[in-house]
Write a structure and sequence with these properties.
Helix 1 links the parallel strand 1 and strand 2. It is globular and about 55 Å long. A five-stranded parallel beta sheet has the order 3-2-1-4-5, with helices on both faces. It contains six helices and five strands. Helix content is about 40%, strand content about 25%. The structure holds adenosine monophosphate.
Length: about 150
């Protein structure tokens, strides 16, 4: 029999759907002595809008980081995740999730996954972007809203 997952990294985008993704991830560790880590990634404004943002966005960015950290903390509290297992980081979403998974020795990454149609198909999903670079399993939890 394969060993149960013991180190799970759940990635949330802090939208309302995050509770569904988190509850799946917590469910994986139910009755098992394991570690649940949570990650939320903030894409630097320069990454999201190109390197030449024509103003100083430092304050705006620190405000966003603080807001995101508070929301992630709220979610984490509901699932009794220790503060040292909550990671709010700046970077590109997929790379930052993969780096954290490697760093903590995750054996499972849990992410939400939206059905895509039309132009959104061209963008691809976060889950799909994670699979090729992941050194562990990736669980894509189906979300009901379309991307
Ligand atoms: P998608 O199908 O690409 O819309 O993926 C949505 C899922 O990707 C979310 O439920 C999260 O699991 C993950 N995700 C998207 N954005 C972020 C983010 N900024 N930080 C962490 N995880 C994210």
């Amino acid at each position: 029999m394969t060993a149960p997952y013991r180190k799970v990294l759940v990635a949330i985008d802090c939208s309302d759907e995050s509770a569904d993704v988190l509850s799946r991830a917590a469910g994986v560790l139910e009755g098992i002595e394991g570690e649940l880590h949570l990650i939320h990634v903030i894409e630097p404004l320069a990454l999201a809008y190109g390197a030449d943002v024509p103003m100083d966005v430092t304050d705006l960015q620190s405000g966003l980081v603080k807001q995101a950290r508070d929301t992630a903390l709220d979610y984490a509290r509901q699932y009794r995740i220790n503060e040292d297992r909550i990671h709010v980081e700046l970077g590109s979403i997929e790379k930052t999730i993969l780096d954290k998974a490697d760093q903590m020795g995750a054996d499972l990454i849990v992410v939400g996954s939206h059905t895509r149609s039309g132009l959104a198909l061209l963008l691809g999903s976060t889950a799909r972007g994670l699979v090729p670079g992941a050194h562990c399993d990736v669980l894509a939890v189906k979300m009901h809203k379309k991307a």
